[in-house]
Write a structure and sequence with these properties.
The protein is 32% helix and 21% strand. The chain is of the alpha/beta class. It folds into two domains: 22-343 and 427-515, Rossmann fold, CATH 3.40.50; 540-662, GMP Synthetase, Chain A, domain 3 (2-Layer Sandwich). The strands form nine sheets. Strands 5-4-17-16-18-19-20 form a seven-stranded mixed beta sheet, with helices on both faces. Strands 7-6-8-11-12 form a five-stranded parallel beta sheet, sandwiched between helices. Strands 21-22-24-25 form a four-stranded antiparallel beta sheet, with no helix packed on it. The chain is globular, with a radius of gyration of 24 Å. It starts with a helix and ends with a helix. The structure holds 5'-O-[(S)-ethoxy(hydroxy)phosphoryl]adenosine. It comes from Melaminivora alkalimesophila. It catalyses: acetate + ATP + CoA = acetyl-CoA + AMP + diphosphate. Residues 36-91 form the Acetyl-coenzyme A synthetase N-terminal domain.
Length: 665
């Protein structure tokens, strides 16, 4: 497990409890712990009845379901399998003729501060027109469309348009490399790519289209017939004749009215790639019906969204958080939300606070890594401290992506929330589709650093290696014992890997293994996530497989003989990537070592994306191995942290390499 001992200690002494104010409880959708417990009891008493009720309340079905859970082919569970719906109609059409029709759906703030607003009605028209443009390019129900877009209204429109015609989207984060785009386009069999000429981040114009060109030129992507290019800036882009069209060209003459295509509840709404402990990223396949149910319900419960709220989730649409809490959940809930193109530190580290004041944001959802970096900035420059802005519109704060340390929690609570706003520390994963463990703002007493209790119906537990429940206070593996509607359906094209990764035989083959360690508190049974128990790192809330980075390093065949990657704690990014490398030439020192380290960092950034750039690179003549040749990762983790080696090293062939590997470049 990756949590540092000091972090664990500071959480263990955590005994502050923050109950919600009476006022918050009174106004909330789930009002008080009794209401929460009543829902849990309902799910316990009549599991299928509970989910069926929520499915009817949250989803507009074009054909009602008669079946709830089908576990006949477990762990390939099906939910509401004979029901039909359309996800885009569930976000847009449902609001027509209601008060929401002319409400602002999206307040878009560009990198340079320019603001654009669209109402639900306008958004529906834009999605309809775009959906017709996709149809005109021959995209049909069941086809896969790869989206490589900046944070823009157009990015949301592109996803919604795919959903509208029953095409399955696969969004690739705009920070990923050409290689990553190519691998995903091949794996998912994309027929069309939606991208932008450039993206604007922190005042810089960064290319997207040319990366798509590079990816498609690498070969293997012959399924891609068309590339649609959103002209975000006026900078020209290179057109491949017969393949590329600008948005303006594709949209010309298209009608804004596009009837939503009814799909089966199990129809794949999207495939989103995420890192696992082995091999290439996995294409996590989600359903339409079960996903939409939980995306909407959790948006309403966890964020307690009310008519007047202005919601802002800072996640990029390239991640699951952007899928569920930008593109689908808030729209299905009829909320007004902020979509932000830029970065939190441009033009200065007060940007988030300035935007909260400007748009009167009332529910704000971000990642611990952003909070920690803004704490650092505020500490060194008083002018970007949140106290300089009027944040009184805020009523609920959220956190996602990694454990939030109690110190950061307290700062967020005091300096952003004015000691008035509950913080919902939401634990979940790409595979879960939506929230799993989280406080409810009008019910749950909060404990800093704890994601508290599972949502009603989520059968979360902490178990040992044999699958037996552990008592409170004992650390073990986090599992989900019963299926839930928004769960991963399979790994795209690899059902065997799906079974092995998430429903291991050792646990009986029916229990979902999250891959995280957890412990429940002695007093309240509250969950605390202690970090991944597999070889997945969490850097700034981004999942990275150590194997992926190792493969990228050894792919530099002219230079690298062997590489091992581990994580080490980092104050701002949570974890940092530390790579131990054996070169095909004598071990470098001094300036040469620094130069090669830089070359390798840039290489990894090109192979995977800048987020995978190793922070530390260390060179050795060898890696520490057991007699059977297995790399001793425990030793590497100690070295990465700068700890003295206390483990038994008698089995090492060459203990001197430990001194080499302790040296940083
Ligand atoms: C981690 C992001 C502690 C965890 C939604 C999980 C968290 C991985 C929390 C999933 C949290 C996410 N507290 N850890 N509140 N939220 N994690 O798939 O290790 O990008 O397994 O989904 O992030 O990352 P993913």
């Amino acid at each position: 497990m990756s949590a540092s001992p000091s972090a664990i200690e500071s959480v263990l002494i955590e005994n502050r409890v923050f109950p919600p104010s009476e006022e918050t409880v009174k106004a909330a959708r789930i009002s008080g712990m009794e209401a929460y417990e009543a829902l849990c009891a309902e799910a316990e008493r009549d599991f299928e009845g509970y989910w069926a009720r929520l499915a009817r309340e949250n989803v507009i079905w074009t054909k009602p379901f008669t079946q709830v859970l089908d576990d006949s082919n477990a762990p390939f569970y099906k939910w509401f399998a004979d029901g039909e719906l359309n996800a885009s109609a569930n976000c847009l059409d449902r609001h027509m003729g209601t008060e929401v029709e002319h409400k602002t759906a999206i307040i878009f703030e560009a990198d340079d501060g320019a603001v654009t607003r669209v109402t639900y009605r306008e958004l529906l028209k834009r999605v309809g027109r775009f959906a017709n443009a996709l149809k005109a390019q021959g995209v049909k129900k069941g086809d896969r469309v790869l989206i490589y877009m900046p944070m823009t209204i157009e990015g949301v429109v592109a996803m919604q348009a795919c959903a509208r015609i029953g095409a399955t989207h696969s969004v690739v984060f705009g920070g990923f490399s050409a290689k990553a785009v190519q691998e995903r386009a091949i794996d998912v069999g994309a027929v069309l790519v939606i991208t932008a000429n450039y993206q604007m981040r922190g005042g810089k114009e960064l290319p997207l289209k040319s990366i798509v060109d590079e990816a498609l030129a690498m070969g293997g992507c012959e399924s891609v017939r068309t590339v649609l290019v959103y002209e975000r800036t006026s900078t020209p882009w290179n057109r491949v004749q017969g393949r590329d069209l600008s948005f303006a060209e594709a949209l010309e003459g298209q009608d804004a009215d596009c009837p939503p295509v009814s799909v089966n509840a199990e129809h794949p709404l999207f495939v989103l790639y995420t890192s696992g402990s082995t091999g290439k990223p996995k294409g996590v396949q989600h359903s339409t019906g079960g996903y939409m149910l939980w995306a909407r319900q959790t948006a309403l419960w966890t964020f307690d969204l009310q008519d007047k709220d202005v919601f802002w989730c800072t996640a990029d649409i390239g991640w699951i958080t952007g899928h569920t809490y930008v593109t689908y959940g808030p729209l299905a809930a009829g909320a007004t939300q902020v979509v932000f193109e830029g970065v939190p530190t441009y033009p200065n580290a007060g940007r988030f606070w300035q935007m909260i004041e400007r748009h009167k944001v009332s529910v704000f959802y971000t990642a611990p890594t952003a909070i920690r970096s803004l704490i650092k900035a505020a500490d060194s420059d008083d002018k970007v401290h949140p106290k300089n802005w009027d944040l009184s519109s805020l009523r609920i704060l959220g956190s996602v992506g990694e454990p939030i340390n109690p110190e950061a929690w307290m700062w967020y609570y005091k300096n952003v929330g004015g000691e008035r706003c509950p913080i919902v520390d939401t634990f979940w994963q790409t595979e879960n589709g939506a929230h799993v463990i989280t406080p409810l703002p009008g019910a749950t007493p909060l404990v800093p650093g704890s994601c508290t209790l599972p949502l009603p119906g989520m059968a979360v537990a902490v178990v040992d290696e044999t699958g037996h429940d552990l008592p409170n206070g004992a650390g073990g593996m986090l599992v989900i014992k019963r299926p839930w509607p928004s769960m991963i359906r399979t790994i795209w094209g690899d059902p065997e890997r799906f079974k092995k990764s998430y429903f291991p035989e050792e646990l009986g083959g029916r229990i979902y293994l999250a891959g995280d360690g957890a412990v429940r508190s002695e007093d309240r049974g509250y969950f605390r996530i202690t970090g991944r128990i597999d070889d997945v790192l969490n850097v700034s809330g981004h999942r990275m497989g150590t194997m992926e980075i190792e493969s990228a390093l050894v792919a530099k065949t002219d230079l690298v003989a062997e590489a091992a990657v581990v994580g080490r704690p980092d104050d701002v990014t949570g974890e940092a990537i530390c790579a131990f490398v054996v070169l095909k030439r004598p071990r470098p020192e001094g300036e040469e070592a620094q130069q090669i380290a830089k070359e390798l960092r840039d290489w990894v950034a090109r192979e995977i994306g800048p987020i995978a750039r190793p922070k530390d690179i260390r060179f050795g003549e060898n890696l520490p191995k057991t007699r059977s040749g297995k790399i001793m990762r425990r030793l590497l983790r100690s070295l990465a942290k700068g700890e003295a080696i206390t483990q038994d090293t008698s089995t090492l062939e060459n203990p001197a390499i430990l001194d080499q590997l302790a040296q940083t470049n």
